[in-house]
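Tokens as discussed.
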């Protein structure tokens, strides 16, 4: 049996399950037989995305261009969220509400929190933004891995970190589902926009299966189950468009910045 995961958005499994149930039914209606009943919730996403039996998942643009040359792109959802434009999205720079500093350059020698080093929204995008401000390859005093965007926000709220880049979709979903998670915080800036998180499938997925995946994913745009995930549209974004992610990394490297 093939495996399916939708790990990237949705504050809880409960937000994602109704969407998957509706998508699963559409896939079966369109003639795809090998569709699992339940979603997988893998702990090791980099390994999971490389599995040969992966029917469908959603990855980040940074792993896509760095470690997943073999996967096929199914398409990219557009989200009805400020900070998104078509298939593109960006991250907000988040700090404490009472923070007097109002510009990124004011956070030199402060502490930044990030979700993971393979994150476009929380790491690569911010690294490109600090590159022109860095001195001898450094800008922040310390960079702390939080493990998740919501944990980065927790670290800011309780004073363990001063700033983080949080993608606009995750922030909007958190505002809806867990408003206390974003209480006492404010936005002071925004990262560059790049194509959003792509749906992917394994290299061995056949052209006919890929076509069904795209048809079903597109059909979900107007389904009631998509509303809670703030999905607004769907398009097939070419892999070449994701080179913008690589360009941001190279921009930082050219400035001597290889880490936050």
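Sequence:
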């Amino acid at each position: 049996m093939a495996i399916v995961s939708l790990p990237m958005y949705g504050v809880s499994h409960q937000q994602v399950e109704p969407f998957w149930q509706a998508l699963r039914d559409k896939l079966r209606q369109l003639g795809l037989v090998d569709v699992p009943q339940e979603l997988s919730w893998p702990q090791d996403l980099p390994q999971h995305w490389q599995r040969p039996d992966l029917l469908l998942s959603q990855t980040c643009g940074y792993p896509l261009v760095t470690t997943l040359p073999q996967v096929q792109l199914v398409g990219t959802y557009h989200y009805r969220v400020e900070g998104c434009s078509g298939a593109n999205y960006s991250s907000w720079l988040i700090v404490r509400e009472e923070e007097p500093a109002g510009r990124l350059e004011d956070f030199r020698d402060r502490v930044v929190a990030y979700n993971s080093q393979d994150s476009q929204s929380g790491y690569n995008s911010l690294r490109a933004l600090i590159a022109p401000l860095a001195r001898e390859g450094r800008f922040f005093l310390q960079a702390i891995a939080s493990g998740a965007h919501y944990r980065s926000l927790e670290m800011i709220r309780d004073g363990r970190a001063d700033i983080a880049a949080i993608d606009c979709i995750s922030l909007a979903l958190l505002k809806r589902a867990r408003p206390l998670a974003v209480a006492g915080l404010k936005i002071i800036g925004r990262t560059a926009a790049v194509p959003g998180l792509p749906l992917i499938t394994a290299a061995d997925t056949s052209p006919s299966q890929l076509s069904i995946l795209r048809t079903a994913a597109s059909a979900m745009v107007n389904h009631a189950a998509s509303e809670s995930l703030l999905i607004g549209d769907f398009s097939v974004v070419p892999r070449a468009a994701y080179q913008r992610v690589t360009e941001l990394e190279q921009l930082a490297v050219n400035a001597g910045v290889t880490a936050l």
